[in-house]
Design a protein that fits this description.
Helix content: over 70%
Structural class: mainly alpha
Low-confidence stretches: none
Largest sheet: none
Number of strands: 0
Length: 408
């Protein structure tokens, strides 16, 4: 923790960290709340898959434009504006739930608005973080952010499960609204030089520059291609089938599912502490090995979805996922020019997310037409094979760190 706090020496990072921590704390319950809000209206996995697909589809449609905007405009301002949009969209969902007028089509539309807003936030944050700290503190800065994210993930889903089962999912969304409202003025305290992008704005010219940077790096597009498949499996098998099994299998239950998601966050939390101390010298090699561990909870979810066993597996998968998350952020931030980072990140996000709506829809259909055990075990095997296959590409296996980037 002491080594991790080295990144807090910069004033701008401190303010950004505070704003991000608030939104992570208050927003940690939203995914659980939204999933069970949909299932409360219509207890069909296909309905949940429609809502999740709408969020992801709108994210995909707008993410490239979000990358261009984040490279052209002050990134903190982009995030603030998007938080206002999020307050309006999630606030509308909460209102509909409180008033008893919520419907699946309405949630599909509002989830789409929230997904479009997120398409601007993600590239802006990816490009902003390297501006807030020094190169030797970049791993610690990413680990500090992951530490907060994982810490709140432990408690957030559990609290969300309790709220959903007692007073309903709308209250979890109200908490999230308060977080966004608090983060907006805090982000105004982040003071950075104006963006370096010059010349007349041209969407297609800016996108071509971003694409050239993206395609010139084999390690980059290899990982993105792998995550096209892996994220589709994750979104469908974990995001749709998981809550459905939790609601309809007494061995797991809604509260139990919240505990499993919290265990995954605990694995991330432990790994962030480790990564604050020990540098990742081969970020992509170790990251993809870590990602392959997610095959374990996927398989157990199908074979024997007991809370304790599934929670242990999710803990291991969470630790592995954090190795990849930090390693990937380092690879991107250390190897992509800062003035093009948001655009390149948007191509990464587009490729990684583009098949996720298909995954949610396919798994929503599969779980009602095929044996869940076969579906989930097959998904786990495929997930591991794809993750490990990426290591056969030399640039992925050999990726190291730049000179002077490792904190001594």
């Amino acid at each position: 923790m002491i080594r991790g706090l080295a990144a807090m020496a910069d004033r701008n990072f401190r303010w950004f960290f505070l704003a991000r921590a608030i939104t992570l704390v208050t927003g940690s319950m939203s995914s659980v709340a939204l999933a069970f809000a949909v299932l409360e209206i219509d207890n069909e996995p296909t309905s949940l898959s429609f809502v999740l697909a709408a969020f992801t589809l709108c994210n995909i449609v707008f993410v490239l434009f979000g990358g261009v905007v984040a490279d052209r405009l002050p990134r903190a301002l982009v995030i603030q504006v998007c938080y206002v949009v999020d307050i309006l969209s999630i606030g509308a969902i909460a209102y509909l739930l409180f008033s008893g007028t919520a419907s699946v089509p309405a949630l599909v539309v509002l989830a789409g608005v929230n997904g479009a807003s997120t398409a601007f936030v993600m590239p802006a944050m990816q490009g902003l973080i390297p501006q807030l700290t020094t190169p030797e503190h970049l791993q610690q800065a990413n680990a500090m952010l992951s530490f907060v994210r994982s810490a709140v993930t432990i408690g957030g889903p559990v609290i969300a499960g309790l709220l959903v089962s007692t007073v309903g999912p709308a209250w979890a969304m109200v908490v999230q609204l308060c977080g966004w409202a608090a983060a907006i003025p805090i982000l105004a305290l982040v003071k950075l030089p104006p963006p370096s992008g010059t010349g007349e704005f041209s969407l297609f010219a800016d996108l071509r520059i971003g694409w050239k940077e993206f395609w010139s790096r084999s390690w980059l597009w290899t990982i993105v291609l792998a995550f096209m498949i892996m994220n589709a499996i994750h979104a469908g098998a974990w995001g749709v089938v998981g809550p459905y099994i939790a609601k309809n299998d007494d061995r797991l239950g809604i509260t139990g599912w919240g505990g499993v998601v919290a265990a995954e966050g605990a694995g991330v939390l432990l790994m962030t502490l480790i990564l604050m101390r020990y540098p990742l010298r081969r970020p992509l090699r170790l990251g993809m090995i870590g990602m392959s561990a997610f095959a374990i909870p996927l398989t157990i979810l199908g074979v024997h979805p007991a809370v304790v066993l599934l929670g242990i597996a999710a803990f291991i998968a969470g630790a592995g996922a954090e190795v990849f998350s930090t390693g990937w952020n380092l690879a991107m931030m250390e190897n992509i020019p800062g003035d093009k980072l948001s655009r390149v990140s948007s191509y990464d996000m587009l490729g990684s997310f583009v098949v996720m709506p298909v995954g949610t829809l396919v798994y929503g259909w599969l779980i009602t037409h095929a044996d869940p055990v076969t579906v989930l075990v097959t998904s786990g095997v495929l997930y591991a094979v794809v993750a490990l296959a990426a290591l056969t590409v030399p640039s992925v296996w050999r990726m190291g760190r730049p000179e002077g980037a490792i904190l001594r």
